[in-house]
Amino acid sequence: MSVHDYSIKVGGEAGQGINTIGSILSRSFAAQGFYLFGHHDYYSRVRGGHNFYQVRTATFPIYSFSDNLEVLVALDQASLDLHTDELVPDGVIIYDQNIQAEIKNPNTLALPMAELGKEHGGKAVMGNTVAAGAVWQVMGGEAGILENVLAKLFQEKGSDLVRANIKAARAGADYAINTILAGVPVS
């Protein structure tokens, strides 16, 4: 296993699924054998206000978050405005394509989260799993690990939901492969 130390931040408004994406990624990195440090920042509102979930993952023990991000997942404009400057020079921005943004970072993926979630998972809300799949692909994670995590996470809700989430994650991973990872301009 090569040495790595990466940070991912998922930002958006309360109720947009920030914790779902962060939880899926955290569990997947743990299942892959990495050390984790997670940091939640949220307002005490049911909906609205800027929130984020930051995950730092490394091949060695870690005890705090990092100020530098390798990946930013933006579910709203505020996340782009507040966190883009935290990216390392070759960092990646994955954002919901419904955000009308002009981003100067060349490593940008405008991801149709809701559309892919509905098409492949049956519901627009599965856009969160689409985003997790895209991040997992960008980070070079093993697909089988992510799929096992999704199976365990959703097993109590039935096999149909497990299959739908796996399909949604694969759609996000495929979208990332066919755009940003293929060197195709994405923004």
Description of the structure:
The chain has one domain (5-182): Pyruvate-ferredoxin oxidoreductase, PFOR, domain III (Pyruvate-ferredoxin Oxidoreductase, domain 3, 3-Layer(aba) Sandwich), CATH 3.40.920.10. The chain is 40% helix and 24% strand. It has a 6-stranded mixed beta sheet with strand order 2-3-1-4-5-6, with helices on both faces. It is α/β, with parallel strands linked by helices and 187 residues long. The chain is built from 6 helices and 6 strands; from the N terminus they run E-H-E-E-E-H-E-E-H-H-H-H. Helix 1 (18-31) packs across helix 5 (143-154). The model has no long low-confidence stretch (mean pLDDT 89).
Features:
187 residues; Pyruvate-ferredoxin Oxidoreductase, domain 3
Beta-strand content bin: 15-25%
Spatial order of strands in the largest sheet: 2-3-1-4-5-6
Radius of gyration, in Å, reads 15 Å
3D shape: globular
* Overall mean pLDDT: 89
Report the sheet with the most strands, covering strand number, pairing sense and barrel closure: 6 strands, mixed
- Overall tally of domains: 1
> From the coordinates shown, what is the CATH architecture?
3-Layer(aba) Sandwich
Can you count the beta strands?
6
CATH superfamily, by name, is Pyruvate-ferredoxin oxidoreductase, PFOR, domain III
